[in-house]
Amino acid sequence: MEKIDVEIPISENGNGLKIGIVIGQFNKEVSDRMRLACGEQLVNLGVSSDDIAYVEAPGALEIPMLLSAMARSGNFDALVALGSVIRGDTYHFEIVSNESANGIMSVQLNSGIPIANGILTCENMTQIEERIDGKSKDCAKVAIKMARLLSVFNEG
């Protein structure tokens, strides 16, 4: 087999992309800040504010179901999951953290629509505060980059 040397540029140009964002509403103050930071970053990277759809989910476990519905709609180039889970005294933290991540991965692999996972899973509110803006903005970049990368393979 002949080696093919191909370099695929990674673009952060969001012009013309349609992005869906699902935001878990548990820890609403955190969710609102994440929504704002991610949305502003998408616009800064060229996504029209009219091409960003926001959907609220009750919590992290409900996010994958809504992402799946959005992916099936065919209306989005990429999706973003935002929310937060704070460790408590029971095993519930592990269940919510692991199952929401598994659900998100399953949706993106089954649908072919990239999903940036921005669900913060932290020990305490201090850790969440330290990550809100950075993670939200990173998810905007990841969504755009993945949509652009996958479009190279879907051409033709």
What does this entry look like structurally?
It is a single chain. With 156 residues, this protein is an alpha/beta fold. It has one domain (19-148): 3-Layer(aba) Sandwich (Rossmann fold), CATH 3.40.50. Helix content is 50%, strand content 19%. The protein is built from four helices and four strands, in the order βαβαβαβα. Strand 3, helix 3 and strand 4 (115-122) form a beta-alpha-beta unit. It is globular and about 55 Å long. The two termini are 23 Å apart.
Question: Strands, helices and their partners?
Answer:
Elements: E1 19-24, H1 28-44, E2 52-57, H2 63-73, E3 78-86, H3 92-111, E4 115-122, H4 125-154
Helix pairs in contact: 1-4, 2-3
In short:
The chain has 156 residues and is α/β, with parallel strands linked by helices. It has helices spanning 28-44, 63-73, 92-111, 125-154, and strands spanning 19-24, 52-57, 78-86, 115-122.
